[in-house]
Amino acid sequence: MAVTPITELNERARDVFRLVVESYLGTGLPVGSRTISKMASLSLSPASIRNVMQDLEELGLLAAPHTSAGRMPTETGLRLFVDGMMQAAEPSVEERRAIEAGISEGGPIEEALSAATAALSGLSACAGIVMVPKREPVLRQFGFVPLNERQALAVLVGQDGSIENRVVDLPVGVTPMMLNEAANFMSARFGGMTLAQAREALRREVEGDRNALQGAAGELVARGIALWSQDADDRPVLIVRGQAHLLDDGTAADLERVRQLLEQLEGKQEISRLLESALAGSATKIFIGSENKLFSLSGSSVIAAPYRSGDGRVVGVVGVIGPTRLNYARVIPMVDFTAQTLSRLMR
């Protein structure tokens, strides 16, 4: 349904609509005409308000969940409110400090991104999300930690201090000494390279029959490089924090919606594709409910803002996912401030 322009609503309709939306966003409950009539800013009788609310319902901006209940904004109504009526509230000093506290220079960038996401989640009472810049780490050190006779934990340390682990199947005959030998060889030979460069260097050595390690140890080196390289394109690029915020006191009667949303959060690649649509923009984007097919069942909203590298390129997206009943006026500026803070960190 096309969104009714705000200019097509008269002043009385705009006032009633705004009060209904603001009350619903604050309580999560349908709003009745008697409740609206008691608000000091509106001098209309309950009967007059009912007539206006009926008109707004016919326009597709309000809906009654069931007979004799009050009314609540539809997704179309929420879009109209966010785009044309909402008065954004800048983050408070305390909120700014909470966001900035976890974002400090030094250490892996992923730690700062994770901290920013956790802070944003806590302040917004939503699940915080951040898309990490896609980049291949420059290698510094490898290690193998034996788990049992047939498996070991392969440890990769990047030059930025990042650490990633994978479980690797061991070739037959590998001893603890061979694990150390292979790790030392990989650290010495491939340190300072990316995974792609290390894979190519290993290929040239094998083709030229110049591989310094033979037998099981040499096979272990090949398996280790292959293991790290095979998922380079699918490397997790989405950090999600604060899913527990989605299970608040107001969700007891709506557990199916929350369950669907939590399942959607597990499908990180799907959400990553959604967030990638925000990479092309220069401003905060808001996706409300079924405006995006991914959240059509759970009825969730996404607020996402791009953040930039030192040269001005958009490298990632930060935001929140929660129910459509969000305090948009507070959360949108908060997401935008987080994106600006991350952009300053990237400089």
**Shape verdict:** elongated
Strand residue content:
15-25%
The CATH class label of the largest domain is: Alpha Beta
Arithmetic mean pLDDT: 81
Main beta-sheet strand count, sense and barrel state: 5 strands, antiparallel
Helix/strand order: HHHEEHHHEEEEHHHEHHEEEH
User: What CATH architecture of the largest domain do you see?
Assistant: 2-Layer Sandwich
Count of DSSP H/I helices: 12
Unreliable stretches: none
Query: Over all CA atoms, what is the radius of gyration?
Result: 26 Å
The chain-level structural class is alpha+beta
The rounded distance between the terminal residues' Cα atoms is 43 Å
Total beta strand runs = 10
Task: Specify the CATH homologous superfamily of the largest domain.
Answer: GAF domain
Q: What count of domains describes the coordinates?
A: 3
How are the strands of the biggest sheet laid out side by side?
7-3-10-9-8
InterPro entries: GAF-like_dom_sf, HrcA, HrcA_C, WH-like_DNA-bd_sf, WH_DNA-bd_sf
Function: Negative regulator of class I heat shock genes (grpE-dnaK-dnaJ and groELS operons). Prevents heat-shock induction of these operons.
Pfam families: HrcA
Organism: Sphingobium fuliginis (strain ATCC 27551)
Secondary structure elements and pairings:
Layout: H1 11-27, H2 33-37, H3 46-58, E1 62-63, E2 72-73, H4 75-84, H5 93-101, H6 109-124, E3 127-131, E4 139-146, E5 151-158, E6 163-169, H7 176-190, H8 195-207, H9 215-230, E7 238-241, H10 255-266, H11 268-279, E8 285-288, E9 300-308, E10 314-323, H12 328-346
Antiparallel strand pairs: 1-2, 3-7, 3-10, 4-5, 5-6, 8-9, 9-10
InterPro entries: GAF-like_dom_sf, HrcA, HrcA_C, WH-like_DNA-bd_sf, WH_DNA-bd_sf
Function: Negative regulator of class I heat shock genes (grpE-dnaK-dnaJ and groELS operons). Prevents heat-shock induction of these operons.
Protein name: Heat-inducible transcription repressor HrcA
